[in-house]
Design goal:
Number of domains: 2
CATH architecture of the largest domain: 3-Layer(aba) Sandwich
Oligomer: single chain
Structural class: alpha/beta
Strand order of the largest sheet: 3-4-5-2-1-8-9-13-14
Number of helices: 20
Largest sheet: 9 strands, mixed
Radius of gyration: 23 Å
């Protein structure tokens, strides 16, 4: 049976991006198409999309849905995923989505207040409640009826509720059967982001009070978009097998472990893939030199020198260069980085950082750069070319996340022969094999991992890493070869998603 799938997400690579969610939705539909699964993508039309230089065309397709006491209109635009013909339909609604602007420090979900802190937009409930209904209206306008509605993260969670409670029950009779045939899969990319709002928003969203119960949408007296999706979706996935286990515990369940335990037989972990065309050191246009596993030494050395020059670091071929591309947040392990990195910089390593986030960590990194000129490079913000250059030019990639649902940067690092140092959690545990003597001897080692999440454990893993780099270059090269030989492509992930889709239909 040929499958049709609609992917709904709040961000998509090539159009608007804040994190790994965008990369997944920008790649998975293309990989599914290669398996014969027809896919389309639906997302909001942000200002970033208009500025992305992706070709887009407005369609004469409009809809209206109730938000509070008014009808809010949306309009469809059409584009395609980069380097593919997979359609992307963008929901135009200027009041809700045309506000992101780096000049005013307004992003897709947050604004920066007078104190310099990033805070959520106060109307995110209305914005993404509207988007959730727009997803279902898009099907009607296009006449596109997928077997699978694949929802991504909390911003789309209410779509599963609207589908079952409104569209499958109260759509026009000639459409009701089409909606009734749809099965939903919800992917949790990060359980900590849940979309929790006042319970008073329920009538504004057009949902009846009978749904506000502990078994359905209520969460400690509030309305929780992600919980709504967890309860109403037919099947649930998250982005690594280890994370699927972790989120069913009180430590990592973020208050939703009970719901996830109840639905454990419907919850599956599938490790994300990477786009091998975009993240390929042999063809990457952003690099000073291309390389593969056979030309690793020469090509990577040139990339390292170019990266050192970019950040005004001392150009020293044998100085260990540590790279970070990350959101600057507690979850990403920046407390550990702050505790450990100054000592290693004093011992002669270099550091190149790209990212933005909490003011505390921006200030700490700025101070570290000022204290160690020629050894620490920092760019606050995001740059896709520079992200590639850090992956290629660094010797080591630091990812000491407190928790990590999957992570993509460690997969990019493996592909580029840049050995990751990671906390053994979530997807990091599933994708990085620690360079123990046994793993090195058996040809399994691909990086360095540590647990527990302490200063001492992180420092020990980094010390082991630096010692092998400095003193055992043959062993380092062997680990690089193993890392670059790993298959973390979307082909592997897409086959697992196809099995899951067919299971949803069978049930």
């Amino acid at each position: 049976m040929r499958l049709k799938c609609l992917h709904a997400a709040s961000e998509v690579a090539g159009f608007a991006k804040t994190g790994g969610l965008a990369d997944v939705v920008g790649s998975l539909p293309i990989a599914l198409k290669s398996r014969g699964i027809e896919s389309i993508v639906v997302m909001p039309l942000y200002r970033a999309c208009r500025n992305s230089k992706r070709p887009m065309e407005p369609l004469d397709l409009r809809f209206r849905v109730p938000i509070g006491e008014r009808m809010v209109e949306g309009r469809l635009w059409r584009s395609t995923l980069p380097d593919s013909d997979v359609p992307v339909y963008l929901i135009e609604q200027p009041e809700f989505f045309d506000r992101d602007d780096p000049a005013t420090q307004q992003s897709l979900y947050q604004l920066t207040n007078a104190a310099g802190d990033k805070v959520d937009y106060p109307d995110n409930s209305a914005r993404f409640g509207f988007f959730s209904r727009a997803i279902l209206e898009t099907m009607r306008l296009l006449g596109y009826w997928p077997e699978i509605l694949h929802l991504h993260d909390w911003q789309t969670g209410l779509a599963a509720v609207f589908l079952r409670e409104i569209y499958q029950k109260h759509a026009k009779p000639d459409l009701r059967g089409n909606y009734a045939a749809i099965r939903t899969v919800l992917t949790i990319h990060n359980l900590d982001y849940q979309g929790t709002f006042s319970h008073l928003d329920l009538p504004m969203l057009g949902l009846p009070w009978r749904l506000f119960t502990m078994d359905l949408l209520e969460f400690h007296g509030q309305l929780n978009f992600l919980k709504a999706g967890l309860v109403y979706a037919n099947l649930l996935t998250t982005v690594s097998p280890t994370y699927a286990k972790e989120i069913q515990t009180t430590l990592r369940g973020a208050g939703l472990h009970g719901v996830l335990m109840q639905r454990s037989n419907k919850l599956f972990g599938i490790v994300n893939g990477i786009d091998e065309q975009v993240w390929n050191p042999a063809t990457d246009p952003h690099l000073a030199a291309s390389f593969d596993s056979t030309t690793l030494d020469v090509g990577k050395a040139r990339c390292k020198a170019a990266l050192q020059q970019h950040f005004a670091l001392d150009v020293q071929p044998r100085t260990p260069l540590l790279g970070i591309v990350s959101r600057l947040a507690y979850q990403k392990g920046f407390e550990r980085i702050n505790e450990v990195l100054p000592d290693f910089v004093r011992q002669g390593v270099q550091l190149a950082v790209l990212g933005d986030g909490e003011k505390k960590y921006r200030d700490l990194l700025t101070e570290l750069r000022a204290a160690f000129p020629g050894q620490v490079g920092l760019m606050l913000g995001y740059s896709e070319p520079l992200a590639h250059q850090i992956e290629a030019g660094s010797d080591v990639f630091l990812m000491p996340s407190l928790y990590e649902p999957c992570g993509l940067n460690q997969l990019y690092s493996l592909r580029y022969g840049t050995l990751p140092v990671v906390h053994r959690t979530g997807g990091l545990a599933d994708t990085v094999a620690d360079a123990t003597p046994e793993n090195v001897a058996a040809g399994r080692a691909t990086g360095f991992s540590f647990t527990p999440h302490t200063r001492e454990a992180f420092a020990d893993a980094l010390q082991r890493c630096v010692a092998i780099y400095r003193n055992h270059p043959t062993t380092w090269w062997k680990i690089q070869q193993t890392a670059m030989a790993q298959d973390w492509s979307w082909r592997r992930s897409a086959s697992e998603y196809e099995r899951l889709y067919r299971r949803a239909l069978a049930e």
